Amino acid sequence: MDEATTTARPGPLEWARAAILSAMLVWATLCLGGVLPSTRLVTCALAAALILAHFLDPGAGPRAHPAGWLLVPFLLYGAANVAWVSPVKWLGWFDWLNWSLAALVFWVVLNGVRSGAVRGALCGVLVLLGAACGALAIFQHFLDPDWIMMGRRQAEQYLGRSSGAFGGPNSLGAFCALLLPPIGWEAARGRGAARAACMAAFPLVGAGLVLSVSRGAWLGLIAALAVAPLLLRGAGAARRVATAALSLAAAAACAAALYALFPLMRDRVGHLVTDMGEKSRPIIWRGAWRIFEGHPVLGAGAASFDSAFEAFRPLGFQDQPVYAHCDYLNTLCDYGVVGFLLAFGAAAAIACRLRRSRGLAAAAFTGLLAFSFHLLVEFHLKVPALAMALAVVAALTTQQAWPAAVAARARRGRAAALFAFAAAAFAVAWAVPRYRAEALRLGGRDRIDRVAARGGDISKEPAELAGIRADLARAVAIDRLNAQAWSDKAYADSLEALVVPGDTARLGEQAVKDADAALALDPLRFEFWIRKGTGLDMQRRWPEGGGCFAKALVMAPNRADVWYYEAYHLSLKASETGPAMAAVNLCLRLDPGFLLAQALRQRLANRR
Question: DSSP 3-state assignment of 151?
Answer without folding.
Answer: coil
